[in-house]
TrEMBL record:
<feature type="domain" description="AAA+ ATPase">
    <location>
        <begin position="168"/>
        <end position="322"/>
    </location>
</feature>
<dbReference type="InterPro" id="IPR057135">
    <property type="entry name" value="At4g27190-like_LRR"/>
</dbReference>
<dbReference type="GO" id="GO:0043531">
    <property type="term" value="F:ADP binding"/>
</dbReference>
<dbReference type="Pfam" id="PF00931">
    <property type="entry name" value="NB-ARC"/>
</dbReference>
<keyword id="KW-0067">ATP-binding</keyword>
<keyword id="KW-0433">Leucine-rich repeat</keyword>
<dbReference type="GO" id="GO:0006952">
    <property type="term" value="P:defense response"/>
</dbReference>
<keyword id="KW-0611">Plant defense</keyword>
<dbReference type="InterPro" id="IPR002182">
    <property type="entry name" value="NB-ARC"/>
</dbReference>
<keyword id="KW-0175">Coiled coil</keyword>
<feature type="coiled-coil region">
    <location>
        <begin position="35"/>
        <end position="94"/>
    </location>
</feature>
<dbReference type="Pfam" id="PF23247">
    <property type="entry name" value="LRR_RPS2"/>
</dbReference>
<protein>
    <recommendedName>
        <fullName>AAA+ ATPase domain-containing protein</fullName>
    </recommendedName>
</protein>
<comment type="similarity">
    <text>Belongs to the disease resistance NB-LRR family.</text>
</comment>
<keyword id="KW-0547">Nucleotide-binding</keyword>
<dbReference type="InterPro" id="IPR032675">
    <property type="entry name" value="LRR_dom_sf"/>
</dbReference>
<dbReference type="InterPro" id="IPR036388">
    <property type="entry name" value="WH-like_DNA-bd_sf"/>
</dbReference>
Amino acid sequence: MAEPVASAAVENVTNQAMECASPYLRYFFCYGEIVQDFTNQRKELKLRKQRVNIDVHVAKRQNEVVYEDVEDWLKRAETELEDTQNLQDEIDRVKCFKWCPQWGWRYCLSKKLAEKTPLITKLLQTSNFAQVGYRGSLQGIEFITSTDCMDSESSKSAFDQIMEAMKAVNMIGLYGMPGVGKTTLAQEVGKHAGEQKLFDKVVMFTMSQNPNINNIQDKIADVFGLKFQASSPEGRAEELFKSMQRVNKILVIVDDLWGEFELKSIGIPFGDDHKGCKILLTTRHQQVCTKMNCQKEIQLGILSEDEAWVLFRDKAGLKDDCSTLNDVAKEVAAQCKGLPLAIVVVAKALKGEGLDLNGWKAVNQRFKDSRHLDNEGVLGDVLKPLKLSYEYLKKGNSQMMGNDIQMCFLLCSLFPEDFEIPIEELIMCGIGVGLFPYANSIKDKRNEIGMALKKLQKSGLLLETDDAEWIRMHDVVRDFAHWLTSTGENRFMVKDKLKEWPHMVESFECYTAIALWNCSSNIKFPDKVEFSKLKTLFLAAKSKWDCFLVVSSTFFEEMKALQVLYLQNVSFSAKRFPSLPNLKTLCCDCCQLKNFPSSLTNLENLALFHTKIYGKSEELVKLSALKYLRLSGVQFYEESEIKIQPSLVPRLQELHIESENTINLLELNSLSCLTTLSLRLSTDQFSQKDFVFPKLQMYTIVVNGRFTYESAFRILKIHNFSSSLSAFSNLFYNVEKLELKNVSGQKNIVPSIGDMGVNELTSLELESCNDMEFLTVITRDQGQSVVFSNLVTLDILHMASLKGLCYGLSPTRFLQNLKQVIIKYCQQLQVIFQIDELSEKMQRQIPLLSNLTILNLDSLPNLESIWKLEPSHKEIVSLTRLKVVTISDCNKLETIFPACLAQNMLHLQELNIRRCDRLEQVIGFVQEEEIIENDCPLYCWPKLEILRIESCKSLKYICVNTLTPGRQSLKSVSIGKCPKLIQVFNSEQNKYGQDILLPELGSQESFVNLTELVLTRLLNIKYLLSELTARTLVHLEILNIRHCSFLEHLIEEVENVDGTYVSNMKNHYPLFWPKLKYVVIESCENLKYLCSSTLAQRLPNLYSISIRNCPRLIQVFNMEINKDEFELQKLTLSDVGDSHQLCNIDVPVLNEDCIVVENHEEVFQVQGGSSFSSIEELYLANLLEARIIWNDFAQVVTLDNLTI
């Protein structure tokens, strides 16, 4: 007992002595405590860095911009971890020698650790970021010139006038008839303005007859990175107004303006409010330009006869000859009256019809026989060719099918102008009016209507959108459709923004389709209206929250023929709702229903979106004739979840329930007609052990995840699921998109999940399935299996147990269609593509990975090889389509590509490699001697544009002698923190006797497209460029060199080279870096010359030079130029040596506010009346060697604008 007490007393006395004595004693006696503290703090920093990295990764995936202080913290943390790695290694080594005190050694180590620990602690204290990124502004819309329109004299003239007018005026109006190409030309102006950087922001939006102000404001706000705080249009306009005022130069393109409009009501400042904001508007009517006070009005005319014929001939696929057939075709083209839209539509309609001379004559005669259109004036000239295209829809089809395709076209005209039409809603309308009656199932009807819409798109009558789920109709074509339905059997009425019920002299009886959009909620609908022929009714109020169009149920009583009813923002009671015996399709969007109209016993298609119903969901199953039921965002006031019994609707073919529900899954098996299913489910609904989904043709099933509807796919998403997957066994055989997240108990996909090989699968996403070891396991007993033969995209994240893609022999056609591979955070993965395990049969198949285009590998700490490849297998692997490769944090990887594969990567465009500590070669050889011995001129990577390599501390070679990338496509090269790098591309010491990083490689086009060159922390580089290579950098804009300690010359003159060749090079590239704008050189301690003293350079666009910490620098540039050609505006020289003259530059127009020159004898050496009259502020600091500011009094007296 006395011994512990004595020990404690000694320890207490020792601690007090430590506090009072010199801190250096602590390094001797508290070594263990100091080591433990350092180790704990360093480990915490490493973990904290990983967590911040994950947050940054998530932010970037959500298109957020990472805060600069976060990026800076990560860099500092990375630097600190790298700097202290040696100390950690030293600690680990000493553990083996505890018996030997080595007091002097311990003292030194303890002192280093004690000094580093507070730095790490400070980093940890500053790492608590509330968020790591923010939503940045978009770059603006991408302007794409239509390929259906040609460059005409009219469009060229209008373009030139617009660009010239922008220099002098703020409001420009472009007008012309419908379909003449105003929108296309406006897009081209926006594209040109963006590419030439004439404006800081370019935004374009469409007004149309009834503009949606909120949508327009949202679109502009996206470009300016603005998040609205206000909800009213006025408040949003004020926020947008202030945001736009903060941007200097803006181009706003207002397309399709129909009348006078106050742009400030949207929030667009111009004129005195913002003189840097230019407005270009397009309109059909010149008087709109006048009313908008356009300072320049420009008309866009139609094509000339020759231009029209060239466009028609190209789009119709006719030969350029002088045949009689072409003479007749020219007459047809002439009927289009030079209108580009009409020419394209008609030509596309006739293309591929195989018309002979008589056929073209018949077409021409049909144009001439349209006598009833002759009095329509200009409108008739446009409608006549469109009518021909409309009639051609019947060609090659039966009478019934032709009529149905035409009806699809007419149905599209019921939607609002410039509206993106949901194809699914259009299909439901088409089915409702009885299109394609010979197709028995909904699936067959869907396919028929889908093919009809594609035919309409190909004929030019409908337009595609960015989303394949929507289509659009050009406003001129829509006008034509309305003209068609103004008379005849199918008469349509389409109105927008009704404020009162129309009082019409004629009866409503003649109309078969009526569409009333954006109606005022104050309209008083009549109790009854005679609609005896009405088959389709669209009724929609203005989109306002809790503001509905109130309609009495008796309003529908006389609509006995009604087949399709589409309601939006409508409220009505269904208590006395008429039976409407012919109603087949009912769609309610954002409606409010008091009880559900169960009297609709013949209803076959029901779709409810974001609709509130005062009643119970079980009322829906009383509609026993239903074949299609879709519920999305539906709320029943008497129920918290949807409770329906599908078995009570036995004829159901398609069931889509995207809201939370308590459906009994066993009842699905009683639906013998069910072919399509969309369900959002929870784990609790799989309590029945015997349940198995029926075989389905189309489905989207989401378990414990977010539901997104896709109409034409087989999608299965299972999240947070630990039960057996046997319920899905009938779906795995044809699933197209499979997503498994946090699914336990499965060691592989094949055979555990899909024993048939899941060969319909095109997309596979796996995340946090920690029991899974391989995607597929194939034993020799199973023979040859076909597995994953159609897989296109493969995403694997956070798979703790994943060891490889395939265990055993690779199956037949394995991954033969794979295009994208993303694998991240898989700790046990050692090899990605185990090519040496290929079966003999596989070797005779299509080359493996021949379709791979994107490869992204990140945070795979045990990855030793991407491709395990035997030499005998090199013929069965092909990377010819690989375009983008990104490798990050794969610390055991020593090479990226085997030499035999790199030779065939003909389409590689982008290569990114970061933080691969053991990487020595990008293109690897078995033995390093092969790099030097093998010097045959074999070229690869001819399309490489971007090369980025960072923090690869063991990297020696990027591309070796035998493999020289095709440098003609290179645009950006960025290499940093690669201290052992010996060469980037092949060395040519044998020819020139030089040791140069980027030497001349025998081609006059070496790096002709390179725009950016960034090199940091390359410690073995003495020379960067040869003179001949440098002369090819005609597009270089940015040169950034930092921390290259041994670099002596940026550009080294080539000696002992044929004089004729050098002379030819100088003649071929007379301007030396003519586009160079920015030069940054920092911490290159041995740098003497940027360019050799004997080289004269012309740098007409040089904007900024910043050179710091280059103490041995003798000369920056040696330039002989005219004052008018020199554009330098920023000059910073700091710690750049003690020579008398760094630049022999006569600098007449330094326009920037600030010039900084430090530690230099003479600031301005120029003489002879040179003027610095534009300088407003001049900062001179740390001029330790300076003796003279100006050596010419004439320079001083010209500083008229100097204020500080």
